[in-house]
Design brief:
Creatine Kinase, Chain A, domain 2, 368 residues
Amino acid sequence: MTAFAVPTIGVEEEHFLLDPESRLPHPAADKVVTRAAVQLGDQVSGEFTEHQIEVKTRPCGDAHRLLAELRWLRATAIDAAVTEGVLLCASGTPVLAADSPPPLGDHPRYRAGREQYRAMLDDFAVNSMHIHVHLPDRELAVRVGNHMRPWLPLLIALSANSPFHHGSDTGYADWRAVIRSRFPCLGPPPYAESLAHHEQLAAAAADSGAMLDASLPFWDVRLNPRLPTLEIRTMDVPADVEDTVALAVLTRALVLTATAKASAGDPGPRLSSEILRAAYWRAARDGWSGAGVDALTGHTLSAPAQAARLVEYIAPALETCGDTSTVSAFLDRLAARGTGAELQRASVARRGIVADVVDDLVALTART
């Protein structure tokens, strides 16, 4: 493991913009992005709907730098949002929402998506966290993706922050993952034997109409088309910025561990797609407080037990990167208060008022 240099990491966070009175998503992305961009430049942009914005860190070498960058991005975006009369909220799904489809952001790809997927996009207002790990060798990155696939369901459970949707408790920890699961090319990447095989699979999906563009796949692990990174896209955006950082460095350690195996000639496990799909569903339903399917064995294990196995698996990489204490503190927080899903349910449990969930999320998002 020490033969590998510590790669830089970057994070993209998507956030809702909310009306402060109704607490419903509010279409103010253009105004907020324009104002925030005075300081953030291209580190802030619009998203799929006019109810959302995205902030993007620069490449960071360590957890401390990443935390400082995210705090600055959030604080600047919050100031811009408040000036424009709205609130910033980190949640995988809108806790409260109108019944009508949200207005689309101004991008040709979003309009093409509407044409392609139609009513499937009527409630597709979801916020993810995307983690970029520097990995410029695309042939190697494909094989690394094969090794990442078994752990993607656990990343869903560790980041779950979307139990509510349109004012109702869905009974799931990560309803965003359920919304995404309806799409044919959102989810785990297919097993690929090589870069050429990976590109063939993407081209076939695009030819079928299931994917918009073969050069821009939306699988949960992808070779970023514009950056020399492996991009992991399976997680909810956390409200707690320290959770974001911990998940980012944990993911980097997982990529480093997979890189060592792939570089040594290990092609990665050929998982059953049915078992992996079941593991995704179970992780989305039960999250941290329940059990999940170990995609490597098919056995059912508690999320904390799976997390302990993951930490043992990536321990040398965590030590190499200096991130062991960051991840340990994160798991201690989960043991004490759960993920965002448990925090959201605790908010409504106090007085039985769903609006309290929104208020607590807004406060936690701003606690930088």
